[in-house]
Design a protein that fits this description.
This protein is α+β, with helices and mostly antiparallel strands. It is built from 13 helices and nine strands. Among the domains are: 104 residues, Phosphorylase Kinase, domain 1 (2-Layer Sandwich), CATH 3.30.200; 204 residues, Transferase(Phosphotransferase) domain 1 (Transferase(Phosphotransferase), domain 1). Helix 6 runs antiparallel to helix 8. It is elongated, with a radius of gyration of 50 Å.
Length: 490
């Protein structure tokens, strides 16, 4: 069960048996303002549910300022319903103190994971770091952009992003804890007048340390510090609670993670340094922008979302699942240097160990680089497949639109087009006319010869009265048969 506020746990002997209607099963920890218990609430027919109960310390129940802060936390937490934020179920009062009943998470905090890895001298896989940071960004962006019922931006800022307030569930889900000092727009002006610095000094942004106005980008800076610590295995700022020392540290250039751990991928190095910009305008403008860069890096490296769950189960539940193989950190030179020689065999073993460590380091880096290149290629292939499918989808949409338009036209003009279609259909389906039977060819009439062509008869001149030619002319006329025509003499 996850604590909602990380603190040093106490024994179970002083845990009260009940608190209001809750049955307390153990104390998780005690903080400066409240104590946290594992609890069970029961209902009818044997129904029960495990959860976490956080209540104000009895010694502070009469303190008006602490009570006001606790009530403010409950009000803000009640608005936040997101998979990457621990959910609040109930706020109430029992036995003279206020309490918050919240979701119980089966897992550990990021601080516990870092401590375990350091104890076993192991490094956290870089893509697991990117996965954790990406899920934290998703939860933070939800809180930063949340609006009230009237649509007004609530402008919630966590102000305490640190490894103790990041919960890692054994199923691979990351959740943000403890909005106890979160700030919202409704009381931002009141806090600004007080000039108070809230949060862990080693994870404060320059605006907070210098008492300047700030916004949601301080959470992005704090997450950059957390990522830097996960990659290098050491805290970026060793300031503890000294604000003056923190100001001095922030005045100096911030070293990139690759300056401490040369195996850090270049893209993750760039993302961390952009989040750690001292000038807020040079940082990521939103947690979503940072999450997008982290997601692209994980896709290129072919990261599996199950890697975080495997790592946690391998470290904290060794009998439940096979542990994730994690590349060991490169040992310092002093650790690899052979000690005083005690014989030839010890020298050989020492040399063999140096060679194997060097080969393992080179192989690890080669695998990382090749994995990134392969991942980039796979991402590009996936993008091309996506574009092709989108083009096919557009073509299908156009086809459906054309068919729909044709259907609408048919429905509208159907009564007018039906006679025309019927007539066209009749013409197309009617049989062709029968072909007439072949007859004997007509006789060819040969043209008459030119001599047989009748010539028009000339006009007869009237006979002359008297003269010698009258009898001869008349005899000739009477003896002509009409076939031979003699032209008149001139």
């Amino acid at each position: 069960m996850a604590p909602a506020e990380t603190a040093k746990p106490t024994g179970a002997a002083d845990v009260p048996a009940t608190y209001g209607r809750f049955r307390l099963t153990g104390r998780i920890g005690v903080g400066g303002m409240a104590e946290v218990f594992r609890a069970v609430v029961k209902g009818p027919q044997g129904w029960e549910r495990e959860l976490v109960v956080k209540r104000i310390l009895p010694s502070l129940s009469g303190n008006a300022e602490f009570t006001k802060m606790f009530i403010r936390e409950a009000k803000i937490s009640a608005l936040l319903v997101h998979p990457n934020i621990v959910q609040t179920f109930e706020f109430g009062e029992a036995e003279g103190t206020y309490f918050i009943a919240m979701e119980g998470v089966q897992g550990v905090t990021l601080r516990e994971l870092l401590t375990k890895l350091k104890k076993e001298q192991r490094a956290m896989p870089f893509m697991v770091i990117a996965d954790i940071a990406k899920q934290v960004c998703t939860g933070l962006d939800y809180a930063h952009t949340l609006r009230g019922p009237d649509g007004t931006a609530l402008e919630i800022v966590h102000q305490d992003v640190s490894p103790t307030n990041i919960m890692l569930a054994f199923n691979g889900t990351v959740k943000i804890l403890d909005f106890g000092i979160a700030r919202a727009a409704s009381f931002a002006e009141e806090e600004a007048k007080k000039g108070l610095i809230k949060g862990k000094v080693a994870y404060l942004a320059p605006e907070q340390v210098n008492l300047q106005p700030f916004d949601h980008r301080i959470d992005i800076f704090a997450l950059g510090i957390v990522m830097h610590e996960m990659m290098t295995g050491a805290r970026l700022f060793q300031a503890k609670n000294d604000v003056t020392k923190m100001r001095q540290l922030l005045a100096q250039p911030i070293p990139p993670p690759s300056a401490i751990n040369a195996a850090v991928p270049r893209e993750l190095d760039r993302i961390v340094m952009k989040a750690l910009e001292v000038d807020p305008t040079q940082r990521y403008g939103s947690a979503t922008a940072m999450a997008n860069d982290l997601e692209r890096t994980m896709i290129a490296a072919r990261h599996s979302s199950r890697d975080l769950a495997k790592l946690l189960r391998g470290l904290f539940m060794p009998g439940d699942e096979e542990p994730l193989v994690v590349i060991d950190e490169v040992a310092p030179v002093e650790a690899l240097a052979p000690g005083p020689s005690t014989g030839s065999m010890s020298s050989v073993r020492s040399s063999t160990q140096e060679i194997s460590n060097t080969d393992r380091t080179r192989s690890s880096r080669t695998n990382i680089n090749s994995g990134i290149l392969d991942g980039a290629l796979r991402a590009e292939q996936s993008r091309l497949r996506h574009e092709r499918r989108r083009g096919q989808a557009k073509a299908a949409i156009v086809l459906v639109a054309v068919l729909a338009a044709a259907g609408a036209v048919t429905k509208l003009w159907g009564p007018y087009l039906k006679p025309l279609v019927s007539s066209l259909h009749g013409l197309l389906t009617s049989p062709p006319p029968p072909v007439a039977a072949a007859s004997s060819p007509a006789p060819v009439v040969e043209p008459a010869p030119a001599s047989a062509v009748a010539r028009p008869a000339p006009k007869k001149r009237p006979p002359k009265k008297g003269g010698k030619g009258d009898g001869k002319t008349g005899a000739a006329a009477r003896s002509g048969t009409g076939d031979d025509v003699i032209a008149p003499s001139e």
